[in-house]
Write a structure and sequence with these properties.
The structure is a homodimer. Chain A has helices spanning about 5-10, 25-35, 55-65, 70, 85-90, 100-125, 140-145, 175-180, 190-205, 215-225, 230-240, and strands at about 45-50, 75-80, 130-135, 155-160, 180. By secondary structure, chain A is an alpha+beta fold. In chain A, helix 2 packs antiparallel against helix 6. Chains A and B meet through helix 1, helix 2, strand 1, helix 5 and helix 6 of A and helix 1, helix 2, strand 1, helix 5 and helix 6 of B.
Amino acid sequence: MNNVSELIKSHRSIRKYLDKEIEEDILMDILEAGRWAPSSSHLQAYHVIRIKDPEKRKVIAAYAGDQKYIESCKEFVIFCGDLSRIKHVCEEEDVKFDGAYLELFLIASIDASLVAQNVLTAAESHGLGGVYIGGIRNEIDKVDKLLQLPDFVVPLFGMCLGYPDQDPIKKPRLPMSIVYSEETYNEIDQDALDKYNDIVKSYYITRTKGKLNHNWSEYTSERLDGESRPHMLSYLKSKGFAIK
Amino acid sequence: MNNVSELIKSHRSIRKYLDKEIEEDILMDILEAGRWAPSSSHLQAYHVIRIKDPEKRKVIAAYAGDQKYIESCKEFVIFCGDLSRIKHVCEEEDVKFDGAYLELFLIASIDASLVAQNVLTAAESHGLGGVYIGGIRNEIDKVDKLLQLPDFVVPLFGMCLGYPDQDPIKKPRLPMSIVYSEETYNEIDQDALDKYNDIVKSYYITRTKGKLNHNWSEYTSERLDGESRPHMLSYLKSKGFAIK
């Protein structure tokens, strides 16, 4: 349709990288793209931390469920929700800061996500590939300590970046008839879901040469079986977000 | 640097639109760009609802604090966090679904945000402009009912789109020395913050011809003065997210 939407629609997560550094000016251009993301009430409630130290990367990779590409990628950044500096300016202006509302945590999460997606798109426009690392939330308190985060700053996800050394096929997405509707929410289109499940099954068989053959419903329900990072609430509370 | 990062870095919120429809194939291309966003564990925990009905737009504009451009924009879409279809597939697969974890609400919020930012970037690449509408959360329960959202589907923010009929100057962002650090979090750079405050003050004076003259610290602390959508937690609980 145009180059930008084609670029966006050609996204694949990239986890294998060429042994080629990302030029510093390109990295800065990419991070700058993040800085221009829209932000709720211009609060800019995020912070980005670049991790160069190989030892630190190794530790984070282990925390994130042994995702080795956190070590092997050329750049690794962590996106944090950050209300600490907003607290700072409130104190400067003698305004009582009550960061305990769930709403503020939500604002920070959305802000950081918009920044991150700008970073990824800009990276892909430079021929780079990347992958989000939500796995840092597996051991979020340990990642927090490693990054020396103050109250009201929480690591949300990481991102690995590098020049791709793989060319994976695109992972099929849920069809528009399921993720999109007009005027009101629509009940799930079971036929479309069944078809999508077949497509996902074929995708996994092709990608893994038959080793995996689950469909989306099977994969998703397996993923949802059991507690989902049950420590998140108590962690957030420990950082000042009372989530009231 | 390149066209895509320049496009991203040239973002301004656009709230005035030409009387020119968005072609249906362009709109679909833009929404498709959203569909290819990365998603945590491929859960795709979002749903997009396009609102065409002028009466409905009028009601939503009022809910969102009388933001008239929700009525005047050419397209208005609402991005929802959606765990309802994940609940559906869990039930299909006989897996107990416990969507009450804060982590799952976070996943849905991040997923929807990445989709939305792809949509905005693709829209801007087509010469369109837009603005996020977090204000729908002012009356989130009413928006919810209007859209007939089931349990585990929550409206997070809207987006107005149209061909720009304004050319605002870029709103200055916090400098890299404040939003970015290496290896660990950095304490706020007060000099950089003071300079940024001066820049923001000049920006508002220029943009409003002297009617507004606040700096970022003043604006931000005013915005944070008082309760921040205190209904959000009870609303989310009413939708099944126990936020445990």
